[in-house]
């Protein structure tokens, strides 16, 4: 069995099975695209539900739980960063964080609309807070993959743990997966990711997805920061069972992550096209499909194309390769040419060994 055919163990998030046997699970990441407005946050939930996404995801931190208020080069993004050049981490996270008191109304609306609602915790207090809200899963962000105590804490709840692997080596991914499994929790999903914003699709390395699946025997997916949906759809062909994309109401007037986020119509297209890609995978076999049975009737074969009498020779004028099927194979014409008909045959008679 090839790496791409290696079955994963499957994971259940809420009422949905996640794995190669199910259609792709689409996570709409809100991040900071609420732009400081609870009303906008709730609108993003509605957009995700209308588009057919399966989950809405938040990020649960404050500037003080994720970093400290220090403005030195170590705590500042590079000046040439495409989106947030020169900003301090504290300042960026102060703007982008989702107030914790918003989580409950956001999650409540999501559930009412049929969405799963969960979050990425960034410290132990976030895990405790999210447990009180009874989230169905946890997402570990790429930068937190090295925080093994945080992974053990999230996995220790018994909920599924989705681990993003941006920047990580195979050794670091293995350590994170082992940290989760050490709690007795085997409900693990591993996402390939490129931690740049927006990400260049040429850096996506989707051919690595079967490696992750084969190495860890878990469902895999893509946390995608590229523009558009092309990379995400392609990922399904390499075994992605989960796709996470940032979502905004509008890139023009969106929040801190809006520049690389999907707008509502694009999210709907992501849902439909990843489903189509998954359906198109089918089975690893080459044969006529069930839906092609009618088409098989109209393959070419040798037919009598002019009325002939017994004793007439077979010639290109009275026997040709035409549609439909039913006669001898076209390649057999060389064997029958020049032979004579045993019986009279009307135009439209399939050529067979019985009549020559």
Automatic annotation (TrEMBL):
Residues 301-356 form the AFP-like domain. It comes from the Bacteria. One of its GO terms (molecular function) is N-acylneuraminate-9-phosphate synthase activity. InterPro entries: AFP_Neu5c_C_sf (IPR036732), Aldolase_TIM (IPR013785), PseI-like (IPR051690), PseI/NeuA/B-like_N (IPR013132), Pseudaminic_synth_PseI (IPR020030), SAF (IPR013974), SAF_AFP_Neu5Ac (IPR006190), SAF_PseI/NeuA/NeuB (IPR057736). It holds the Pfam family SAF. GO terms for biological process: carbohydrate biosynthetic process. NCBIfam families: PseI. PANTHER family: N-ACETYLNEURAMINATE SYNTHASE, PSEUDAMINIC ACID SYNTHASE. This is N-acetylneuraminate synthase. It comes from Knoellia subterranea KCTC 19937.
